[in-house]
Every structure is written in structure tokens, then in C-alpha cells.
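Fold this sequence, please.
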Amino acid sequence: MTAQPQPTSPIALPENLLPLGELSRRLAAELMSAAAVCRDCEHIAGDLAKGGAALESISRLQALDELSQRLHGLSDVLQRIGLHASGEWSLSIEPLLEGLGLADLVVRLRAAEAQTDWAVEAGELDFF
């Protein structure tokens, strides 16, 4: 039996590398923004439910609250990863963004400068 060399992945050029901590902070901001959208939906759904929604429908709306909490939790974890990641850890962001359907999200994650305003904006929608 002879050992075969493993295929190597293409090496990214230094200018295409993003520090893991920065990527983690950007992802945390995106999740926090998504959680804000969920909170808004919760309020809208609550207002609609006051009009006499069935108990079964109101119970299903609890899923929005759970989703919001999950997004907040994941955002917190990614924020902590950003704080504790070694400055030596970098990766190429382009393979991670490949196939991501929301162009504005790709732009924010690829941006060279840190975003200061991560306000919730209307974005592109994918219709099923």
C-alpha cells in the first residue's frame, strides 16, 4: 500500500483573506439585524392577533419569539468568537459567499471597512 498525496485546496492570496474575528463580528451583526426583523414581526403578529386570531394561530406565533431568541443567542456567540479569535486566523471569504442569494448581504460581509450602521433595511426577497 502506498500513500497518495491529498489534493490541496487553492491558496488564497493575502488580500482575499479575512480575519476570522472580523468575519465573526460581521455575521453577528447580520444575525442581530435578522433578530430585529423577527421582533418587528412579533409585534405585528401580536397586533393582528388582538383582532381575534384563533388560539392555535397564536400558539404558532410563539415560533417567532423562539426564532428571535435563537438569532440573538447565535449573534452573541459569534460576537464572542470575534473577541477571542486569534489574529492569525484568516480565511478566504469568497468561497463562503458563493451562491449566497442576497446581494446586499454579500456586499456587507465582503466590505473592507467595518459597518457602523447595521440598521434593518428592506432587501431582496426570494420567492418560492
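The beta strands are 17-19, 90-92. The first strand starts at residue 17 and ends at 19.
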